[in-house]
């Protein structure tokens, strides 16, 4: 029921018409109940009301038509829109499906290609791995076999080493015994020489007749009455060492009770040859013992003298009438005057070149490395040359070298197997 109808019904009943539609309905319903009327059966239709306003009816009809037209157009638009959306959806779906299918196929092909390559690589790696494992197993087997062989070899070597040590112990014991025996023999020989030396001193024999060094005799006192016969002589030759002469003489004089002031008077009697001439020329200077030693060294051991010694050592060849052994000993004395005792083996190449022609080529074949080897070879050649009555001939240059130790050919004495 409209508000207008409610207001009209209230107006007919003499009730107020102010308020909202709900208030109006409540007011009308209450009035009906007060008058014992049923609100449910009450006819709220304005039976007496007529539509006077034709324009309202026209507007309603127009509104109905417009609503119908709008519904029709809305339905048509909706149908067209649904059709178009369906077509576009189908087209988009087809395109999307086609594109997805193409991309899926491309991705699948690429993935299949990569998987195929990876499968091939994995297969090759598996094959290589198996081959390497096989080779490694083979190598391990070989190493185990080699290790077993090495262990056997080490065991055998240990047994040999133990056996060798036992042999060395036995040889060491024998060697110690041999050394002990040799020392005993040497001690006896030294004691024998010492007794011989004491005997010779007591009988007045000169010290130049035997070869014991002053250091060996330092503990033996010397009788002043026999000192002159014990002192060495000095002739002033280049091969004679003035330092050794003074040291030997002073060592002997110190073991007597003779005062130092008398040393000069005794020793100058031992100067012979050019040395004696030199002393006769300077003895008027009134030298004491120390001054004499200085002047003596200045005259016979100066730089000029050493230069002459060096020149003689390098240039003077073996005279035809001189034995080879004597020549090389003289050369060694000259070399020691300049270079001392430390490097005597260095003199061998120089001495070799100064030997007589008949010796030089033969000695070069033997290739001596030390002075003792040179002395042994030259001594043998000297004996073979002097003993012409014996049926020995000197080896030629084109013959194989001969050992002068064992007497066999094919090697020299320094390389003799029997050494």
Question: What would you say this structure looks like, in words?
Answer:
The protein has about 425 residues and is mainly alpha-helical. Among the domains are: about 90 residues, no CATH class; about 80 residues, no CATH class; about 110 residues, no CATH class. Helix 9 runs antiparallel to helix 10 and helix 10 runs antiparallel to helix 13. About 10% of the residues have low confidence.
Topology order in helix (H) and strand (E) letters: HHHHHHHHHHHHH
Nearest-integer average pLDDT:
79
Radius of gyration: 72 Å
Helix count? 13
As a percent range, the share of strand residues is under 5%
Q: How far is it from the N-terminal to the C-terminal residue, by CA? A: 156 Å
Characterize the overall form: rod-shaped
Unreliable stretches (pLDDT < 50, length at least 5) are 45-53, 201-220, 389-395
Helical amount = 55-70%
Task: Label the structural class.
Answer: mainly alpha
Quick one: biggest sheet?
Answer: none
User: How many beta strands in the DSSP annotation?
Assistant: 0
């Amino acid at each position: 029921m409209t508000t207008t109808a409610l207001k009209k019904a209230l107006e007919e009943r003499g009730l107020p018409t102010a308020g909202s539609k709900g208030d109006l309905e409540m007011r009308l319903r209450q009035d009906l109940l007060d008058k014992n009327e049923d609100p449910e059966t009450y006819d709220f239709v304005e039976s007496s009301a007529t539509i006077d306003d034709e324009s309202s009816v026209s507007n309603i009809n127009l509104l109905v038509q417009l609503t119908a037209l709008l519904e029709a157009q809305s339905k048509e638009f909706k149908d067209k829109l649904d059709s178009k959306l369906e077509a576009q959806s189908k087209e988009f779906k087809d395109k999307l499906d086609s594109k997805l299918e193409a991309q899926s196929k491309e991705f699948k092909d690429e993935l299949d290609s990569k998987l195929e390559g990876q499968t091939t690589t994995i297969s090759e790696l598996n094959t290589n791995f198996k081959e390497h494992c096989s080779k490694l197993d083979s190598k391990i087997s070989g190493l185990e076999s080699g290790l077993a062989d090495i262990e056997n070899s080490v065991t055998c070597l240990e047994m040999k080493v133990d056996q060798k040590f036992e042999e060395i112990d036995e040889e060491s014991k024998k060697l110690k015994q041999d050394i002990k025996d040799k020392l005993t023999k040497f001690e006896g020989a030294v004691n024998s020489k010492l007794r011989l030396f004491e005997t010779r001193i007591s009988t007045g024999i000169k010290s130049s007749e035997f070869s014991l060094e002053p250091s060996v005799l330092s503990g033996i006192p010397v009788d002043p009455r026999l000192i002159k016969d014990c002192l060495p002589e000095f002739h002033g030759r280049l091969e004679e060492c003035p330092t050794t002469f003074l040291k030997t003489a002073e060592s002997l004089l110190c073991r007597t009770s003779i005062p130092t002031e008398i040393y000069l008077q005794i020793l100058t009697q031992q100067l012979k040859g050019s040395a004696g001439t030199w002393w006769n020329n300077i003895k008027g200077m009134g030298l004491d013992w120390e001054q004499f030693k200085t002047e003596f060294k200045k005259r016979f051991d100066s730089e000029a003298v050493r230069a002459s010694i060096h020149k003689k050592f390098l240039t003077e060849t073996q005279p035809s009438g001189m034995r080879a052994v004597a020549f090389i000993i003289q050369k060694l004395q000259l070399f020691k005057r300049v270079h001392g005792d430390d490097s005597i083996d260095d003199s061998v190449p120089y001495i070799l070149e100064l030997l007589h022609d008949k010796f030089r080529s033969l000695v070069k074949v033997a290739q001596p490395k030390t002075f003792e080897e040179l002395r042994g070879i030259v001594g043998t050649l000297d004996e073979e040359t002097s003993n012409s009555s014996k049926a020995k001939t000197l080896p030629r240059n084109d013959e194989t070298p001969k050992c002068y130790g064992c007497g066999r050919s094919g090697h020299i004495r320094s390389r003799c197997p029997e050494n």
